[in-house]
Design brief:
Rossmann fold, 6 helices, 19 strands, 11-stranded mixed beta sheet, alpha/beta, 4-stranded antiparallel beta sheet
Length: about 350
């Protein structure tokens, strides 16, 4: 993938990256598994259609502002001896496929239901907890993960059901999962269809709400918001009710290591639910500021501050930092040894 070293030339507007962002983006790539970062381009072209696209060097061959940042990153990489085969420590998987998006777009049912937004909300909550997240296909093995999240999967195969039966990971299924057959019909045993082999629950009805309307959602003694897509659940007595709607009917149910979420909710609810499930699965979570992310690769853990403001990241005070510290200036990063 290309990494921009300055203003590009193809957007509606082409702002200059903030000071430090070239180095930060480079470390984000390496932290998430890149073995190479390529900057486009080496030298800004003085001719043709890309004259305005910045390079590491200007048209007169003098170093641009990004040049020193790339030199800095190279020196840091050499110091830490990060290798291309250093493993990524993925603890959580999000199961995703284009079929999920196609089905929910063909039968959207409510304009406020946007598949990519729903998937991103789960991802955002997991990353705010400091967890390494892999995106995997329904055909992938789930054996290496402690927590597997399926934001939605309307059409579920028999092979995926067997895959779920083989894993000890905590499985979380979002609304609409199992709601269609291969022929795009409602399952004869009602939604979530084949998922009833894993969780004894039925979807009795569905309502969709405007994006600016919500209902009360009760979870762990706190009040949150249920919104956009809300399913009426018929749960077996063998399931545990984790969250309820305003009328105290079940909204989230659990059977063993499997959880079915019958509603979309506010960001605070999604994060609170996933935090509880992650900790129960033996994972370590962190409380990160809104614009801070962390990732672990090889023997290191990295912190990234995407904000212009300096920020202190609690929970890392006693770590051994090799670059920076848990007090991050704006648009900066830090690297510590994993412990």
């Amino acid at each position: 993938m290309e990494q921009q070293p300055g203003p590009v030339n193809w957007a509606v507007h082409n702002p200059r990256p903030a000071p430090g962002m070239i180095a930060l983006w480079s470390w984000v790539a390496f932290g998430h598994g890149a073995d190479t970062v390529c900057y486009f381009r080496w030298r800004q072209a003085p001719f043709a259609q890309e004259q305005m696209h910045a390079g590491l060097k200007r048209t007169d061959n003098s170093p641009s502002a990004a040049y020193a940042q790339v030199q800095q990153v190279k020196a840091e990489l050499d110091k830490l001896n990060i290798k291309a085969d250093d493993p990524l420590h993925y603890e959580v998987a999000i199961v995703s496929s284009t079929t999920n998006q196609w089905v929910t777009e063909i039968e959207q049912q409510g304009q406020s239901y946007q598949h990519q937004q729903v998937e991103f909300e789960y991802y955002h909550a997991l990353r705010m907890l400091g967890l390494n997240v892999a995106f995997v296909s329904p055909e992938a093995s789930l054996a290496d993960y402690a927590l597997v999240v399926v934001p939605t999967m309307p059409v579920i195969s028999d092979a995926f059901i067997e895959n779920c039966k083989q894993t000890t990971a905590t499985l979380v299924f979002g609304p609409r999962s199992g709601s269609k057959t291969d022929e795009f019909q409602t399952p004869s045993n009602l939604a979530p269809g084949k998922l009833q082999q894993l969780i004894p629950v039925q979807v009795l009805s569905v309502e969709t709400l405007r994006g600016d309307i919500s209902e009360t959602l009760h979870y762990e003694g706190e009040t949150f918001h249920s919104n956009r897509w809300r399913e009426e659940l018929g749960a077996s007595d063998s399931t545990k009710v984790l969250a309820t709607y305003h009328d105290h009917s079940p909204a989230v149910v659990q059977a063993g290591n499997r959880v079915y979420v019958g509603t979309l909710g506010c960001a605070d609810f999604t994060r609170a639910l996933l935090e509880m499930l992650a900790k129960a699965a033996g994972l370590t979570t962190f409380t990160l500021p809104e614009d801070v992310r962390t990732v672990a690769r090889g023997e290191y853990r990295l912190l990234f501050n995407y904000s212009a403001d300096a920020v202190r990241v609690d929970g890392f005070e006693d770590r051994e930092f090799v670059i920076g510290s848990n007090e991050l200036p704006g648009y900066s990063y830090a690297v510590m040894k994993r412990g």
